Amino acid sequence: MIETIKLTKRYGDLIAANEISIKLDQGDVFGFIGPNGSGKTTTMRMIATLLNPDYGECYVCGKSIYTNPEEIRRLVGYMPDFFGVYDDMTVIEYLEFFASTYRINGPDRRKVCEEKLELVDMSFKRDAMVNQLSRGQTQRIGLARTLLHDPQVLLLDEPASGLDPRARIEIRKLLRRLGEMNKTIIVSSHILPELADVCTRVGIIEKGNMLADDYVADVMKKAREAILLEVRVTENQEKAASLLEQQDVVRNVSMRSDTIYVTLKPGTEDYSELSTVLFENGFRIIQFREEEVNLETAFMELTKGLQQ
Ligand SMILES: Nc1ncnc2c1ncn2[C@@H]1O[C@H](COP(=O)(O)OP(=O)(O)OP(=O)(O)O)[C@@H](O)[C@H]1O
Question: What residues does the ABC transporter domain cover (predicted)?
Fold first, then answer.
């Protein structure tokens, strides 16, 4: 659906995007994570055919950005990080104006605009003036505008930036809804946890270089290669810890306040013997659980040492 091959853009001596290769299938939601100035916008603008690369290739739905830019623009909905809204226009007029630029005319136009407003949960503001909307509402109208021509591919540049926590949650819900509609989405952010739970894939970019690119499920799997258990027993914690340490599946054991932390050997799936051995030795277990895998920590671990 989207394939970039060594896509590169230079500004003088600065390499804003350095040989970026990404391959996405239909329905993939790709979280493009990187700090300010890392090259996210540059890469997205090249895919959207708004910026010419210096090197590399990019295909959208099999069409090359060099030979079929106009077709790609029909297939792609690009939402920039900043977009102007116009004074003296209601929400519905604003959308109808952009619908006309996509040559959506006649009775269809109003219908399409109303549908998109509903999709972004903004029907209640259809007659409000666009310059009187909150930042979160403006972002949602921007998204509705991006969806007007029903693009198969969405490139969303920091759609959640500057929003309060509630509005961020709303944007995430919307992204999930769009993913369920089988659109292929690249959504950028400088904060990983913001996107982790809505993405199927996550890529990290820094100073124009792609540091990591993986399926979220695989990142989680790698993070789980050494499972960490949190165990608490009613008394004799130290004895319980040394008993656990002697078990085959255990790599090491440490203690912090009243909790025993047990790291299992990589690849261990069944560790039920640990609770059995505690029970058989008379310990009363009050907690026995896997530590929750945190995607952000996992990703930082995976990219450690690459960010020189
Ligand atoms: N037209 C331009 N001329 C010169 N340098 C540019 C130009 N556009 C971008 N850059 C530089 O290229 C680098 C990448 O910028 P880009 O906007 O792609 O980053 P970004 O990851 O989208 O950042 P942000 O999160 O701040 O939007 C930055 O160092 C930026 O200053």
Answer: 2-232
Helix (H, G, I), strand (E, B) or coil at 71: helix
198-208 average pLDDT score: 87
What is the 38 CA–ligand 1 centroid distance (Å)?
Answer: 7
Check residues 180 and 308 and name the one with the higher pLDDT: 180
- Give the strands of the sheet with 209-215, arranged side by side: 76-79, 153-156, 184-189, 29-33, 201-206, 209-215
| Ligand 1 atom 12 nearest Cα | 16
One DSSP character per residue, 150-210 reads: --SEEEESSTTTT--HHHHHHHHHHHHHHHHTT-EEEEEES-HHHHHTT-SEEEEEETTEE
The Cα 93–Cα 90 span in angstroms is 5
User: Domains in the chain, start-ordered, CATH in brackets?
Assistant: 2-220 (3.40.50.300), 225-292 (3.30.70.100)
Find the 5 Cα to ligand 1 centroid distance in Å: 20
Query: Does pTM top 0.90 for this prediction?
Result: no
